[in-house]
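batch_manifest entry 22 of 60
target: Glucose 1-dehydrogenase
source organism: Virgibacillus salarius
requested by: lab member K.T.
priority: normal
notes from requester: please return tokens only, no post-processing; we will run our own comparison against the previous entry in this batch. if the run fails, retry once and flag.
--- input ---
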Amino acid sequence: MYNLEDKVVLVTGASRGQGEAQVRYFLSLGARVIIAARELNDAEKLSQEFDKNKTLPVKLDVTNEVQWERSIHAAIEAFGRIDVLVNNAGLYYNAALTETELHQYREIINVNQIGVFLGMQSVIPIMSQQKKGSIINNVSISAFAPLDGTAAYASTKAAVVAMSKATAVEVGKDGIRINIVHPGGINTGMAQTSGTIPIYSQTPLGRIGEPKEVAHVIGFLASDQSSYCTGAEIVVDGGLTLGTRIE
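--- output ---
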């Protein structure tokens, strides 16, 4: 188990699904966690389960630059530093390209792509002053193995991969690492809406993944045990992108 004692971690989309699992795992490793969610009530509800000195709930719509500024200010005021950012918030959308309206495409770009851009832009100056930091962008296997009907969704995920790698080159000299996690099918509300759950019984591991399994990988990338990893991509998909078994 990795030691994140007293590291300060900010997780977006933190009140449910993969984000909630990440919050719980980070706290179990001794970290202090900023629980960032679009609805403050949701963040506060999760925060109440833990030591109030270990968590900070904040309202954060990742597409809103002002809310990023406020959240970062609150985190620094409460904990004095930010060691780790997990850009976890995301929006799933499934429709043929020709049936996707421009406003829908712009919405998914705003959340999945611009949200990550604003997050990295917000924490990099702080991490540069600290001469150390870890940013983990929770992306998707759709970035390189898209499902039918995910042209809009997959394109935003692929863009984040390129942005992550280019930024990792820029900020490595300042001791900042940027890495990428690619979940496959994970048992959350998003998987339920995608309608793909039946296929996971045919994957090499024969099941859908659990949110905590993604959190464990993110915990490694947040820790000093991954100190020589930057620009890396780790796939957490039970072998789905290797192929499926014939029953």
